[in-house]
User: Fold this.
Amino acid sequence: MNKTVLITGASGGIGQALCRHFAKAGYDIILHYFSGEERAMLLKAQLEKQYGARVTAVKADLRSSEDIKALAQKAGQADVLINNAGRAYFSLFQLADESKVKELFDINLMSAMALTKEILPSMINKHCGRIINISSMWGISGASCEVHYSASKAAITGFTKALAKEVGPSGITVNCIAPGFIDTEMNSCLDEESVKEIVEATPMGRKGTGDDVAALALFLAGDEAEFITGQVISVDGGYLGN
Assistant:
């Protein structure tokens, strides 16, 4: 029987790569999306055709507790949960729109905590499960003009470390991936000069890809990673260094 992975924000750049890697590895996919319905349906069709995967696409507003509960019910007894959905927000700290800040934290942090709460009972009952949270290198180092985004992602790392200790006795691992600059639509708003500066400061000398992140997530979901938990692992080409 195939294992099942629930991936939030699956229609985005990293989300699509996660879906492809897990489908190729034989997982059944619960593909969550909200605004990117056309991309989600196209991805679903591609995964089914290319890998013969069983894919269930579920639309859910992660700001809604009712939608989160419905998404968890669709996922059933998921073996792996990847909290990937996220939103960026660029603003000077003192000029930030409070409604946008609330929405940012609702999506980047609170939805991950709420969905994890819904999925955990079945994992605890099975005494097995993998939870993988997608953070950001800015959650580790912080970024100017992205104070609220950095704070929301830093909170994800704290959530990861604390929950890992709480559910470890139940056979569940909780880890966090902190991507560096990944070539996705979320980062498309950066100007060419800013991108060039980041790439030049990256020891590997290139932008990251969704595949870079997805390969690590697939490893953390596997049996080989059963003794790895509470970790925040950077996928940033060495940008942060030590």
